[in-house]
Amino acid sequence: QTCALPILNFLNDLKSQGVSEGRVNFDGGGDSGEIYNRLETRNGNFDIDNHVEDFLYRWLGEFYGGWEINEGSHGDFEFFLDDMTIQLNFYEHTENTEDLGTVFYTEF
Known about the structure:
Blueprint: H1 4-16, E1 21-29, E2 32-35, E3 38-41, E4 44-47, H2 50-63, E5 73-80, E6 85-92
Antiparallel strand pairs: 1-2, 1-3, 1-5, 3-4, 5-6
């Protein structure tokens, strides 16, 4: 894939700086959502480039289409640099509706 090389370069650059793992958070709701464009690590925060951000948006949309709609969802992408993997952790927000039956009735 065309996006694989920039992502691999990003991961290798982090690894060369001594980063072993990190997290990119996302949050959605109200028909909008955002993947925060920083990787949080023990070594500090690192901005993610557009190629990585685009990949994460595509990946999230493919696995959880509508992640940003209505109650939305939240989660994170965990980056594990020792084995060069990214893991998606997803938490869906739901709204429950409870039927209370007839709560008021009047006749005239």
